[in-house]
Amino acid sequence: MSTQSTKQELKAALKASHAWWSDMGVDIPAPLPNKPLAATKRNPQATTPQTTPQTNITAKPTEVDISKQLEKAAEQAKAAPTLEALKTVIEAFDAGVLSDHARNIVFARGNPNADIMVIGEAPGRTEDETGKPFVGPAGQLLDKMFAAINLDEASLYITNVCNWRPPENRNPNDGELALCAPFITRHMELIAPKLVVIVGGISLQALTGKAGIMKARGRWQELTIGGEQIPAMPLYHPAFLLRRPELKKDAWRDLLAIKERLKDI
Ligand code: URA
């Protein structure tokens, strides 16, 4: 048996074991070995920052293979001519601990011809199991929020800045977001939305480089998508609203601003 196929079998066995523990309700804390993808505080020897195309995310790769993966992500995403091709690229992509731990990639749901693109953070457990974004409790609230302004899946296209559920349900870190950046950049180009809804602080940071959803929510931003300036409204993440229901009134105001803006589109 070749070293390559032994490696793949080992990887599959580890993935199956993670899935089993996950079914038992246990999140596996340790990343798989030899997957130094993320540039985080855990990688104190981080070196030269690299900026990914059309985003404001700065990655600090610590090893040569990480910067190679960043290059590969950028090349492959750019070359994807269709949504289907982009999905295939992401499915086959080695995103280190992200792809090793995830059961499925989470690509999108909704209408690819919609004017409105909704971009969240990263998949949770239900999304990881189903391969669809925003289908757990937070997603149900998000659907209700849009329903309140008469928008449903036929008028929305929904995705995330990160296509894999991070281990332990943690937030994706800067290195991981940098790796995912070419994919969301190409995803936005292929959808070519007229309006973007940025859901949550991680997506705000990933798409605009701005920190602080508390301050940015309700304030129109601009994203450059395929050379066009596209209006983007940051919203509180519905998972946050489930914990802080008193803030729903702000979210309602932001939804009304979106409804108003849609009249010009
Ligand atoms: N939170 C997100 O940001 N995206 C999902 O798909 C699910 C939960």
Given as residue ranges, the uncertain stretches (5+ residues, pLDDT < 50) are 20-54
How is the main sheet built? 6 strands, mixed
Give the SSE string: HEEHHHEEHHEHEHHEEHH
Bound molecules: uracil
CATH superfamily membership: Uracil-DNA glycosylase-like domain
How many individual helices?
Answer: 11
CATH architecture: 3-Layer(aba) Sandwich
The count of domains is 1
Strand order of the largest sheet: 3-5-4-6-8-7
User: Please, what is the average pLDDT?
Assistant: 85
Structural class label: alpha/beta
- Using the coordinates shown, work out and report the CATH topology: Uracil-DNA Glycosylase, subunit E
Strand residue percentage: 5-15%
In helices, the fraction of residues equals 40-55%
What are the salient characteristics of this protein?
265 residues, alpha/beta, Uracil-DNA Glycosylase, subunit E, two-stranded antiparallel ribbon, 11 helices, 8 strands, binds uracil
Polypeptide structure, described:
The model is unreliable at 20-54 (pLDDT under 50). The protein has 11 helices and 8 strands. The protein has one domain (63-264): Uracil-DNA Glycosylase, subunit E (3-Layer(aba) Sandwich). It has 265 residues and is of the alpha/beta class. It binds uracil. The site of uracil has 16 residues, from helix 6. Uracil (URA) is lined by residues 106, 120-124, 127, 133-134, 136, 138-139, 160, 199-200, 239.
